[in-house]
Amino acid sequence: MEKILEVKNIEKYYGNKSSLTKAIDGISFDIEKGEFVAIMGSSGSGKTTLLNLVSTIDKVTSGHILVECLDITKLKGEELNKFRREQLGFIFQDFNLLDTLTAYENIALSLAILNMPYKEIDEKVRKVAKELNILGVLEKYPYEMSGGEKQRVASARAVITNPKLILADEPTGALDSKSSKMLLEKFNYLNNDLGATILMVTHDAFTASYASRVIFIKDGKIFKEINRGDDNRKEFFDKIIDVVTLLGGDLNDAL
């Protein structure tokens, strides 16, 4: 299988010599093309820091992160901007849609930045909107949409450029249970039918059970890793709960 992401012995420190905090402590893992991987851990475990490092929002203190053999820890300036623009898709808990743009315009924006012809942009936007069942909201502004609709618009925006890697930060955190289930089923569609590679941070075992693999983080280190294999989602959910229980005092934070 082709490796999309290689995380090699990364560390991240915050603070100064008098007050130094080690947020990430020697983490290494790979993600292959077409995988859907969840990162779980309690508040303060380092899972969000890890996602920020992979997304280039933050910089590693040491170690290397490679996306399709490109060492992104060495990218700077326009080279870094180009990588973010063309190779990564982002889905945030608070949607991060532009309030002054319609759903259509929010989705199309990243293609317009790439100077794609209008006809091609229109075809791509309508195709992904149909796949995510949001054709009916394309002319609406964010304030006119439900939370679930906004998150699906954000998902469409993330996949429209066919990025190498989609990064999702607590994507169901602001959604009710019905909207969460609908979004996660769309994630599975993106992953299984469109071949999208997804790395998702979540504190929720139900959300994580939609992934094909879960990596558990504790105190900035990998605590355990489990694969779904041939398990159905309920069986995988039960295995996730078993690991969360092993985390002891972190149980309430991880569910």
What would you say this structure looks like, in words?
The protein is of the alpha/beta class and 255 residues long. The chain has one domain: P-loop containing nucleotide triphosphate hydrolases (Rossmann fold, 3-Layer(aba) Sandwich). It contains nine helices and ten strands. The chain has a six-stranded mixed sheet, sandwiched between helices. Strand 4 (62-67) and strand 5 form a beta hairpin. Helix 3 runs parallel beside helix 5. The longest helix is centred in the C-terminal third of the chain and has 16 residues, at 177-192. It is globular and about 50 Å long. The two termini are 32 Å apart. Residues 251-255 have low confidence and may be disordered.
Mean pLDDT: 90
Q: Span between N and C termini?
A: 32 Å
Number of helices: 9
Our count of domains comes out at 1
Secondary structure: elements and pairs:
Elements: E1 3-16, E2 19-32, E3 36-40, H1 47-54, E4 62-67, E5 70-71, H2 77-87, E6 88-91, H3 103-113, H4 118-131, H5 147-159, E7 165-169, H6 177-192, E8 198-202, H7 205-208, E9 213-218, E10 221-227, H8 233-246, H9 251-254
Concise synopsis of the structure shown:
The protein is α/β, with parallel strands linked by helices and 255 residues long. It is built from nine helices and ten strands. Helix 3 (103-113) packs parallel to helix 5 (147-159) and helix 5 (147-159) packs parallel to helix 6 (177-192).
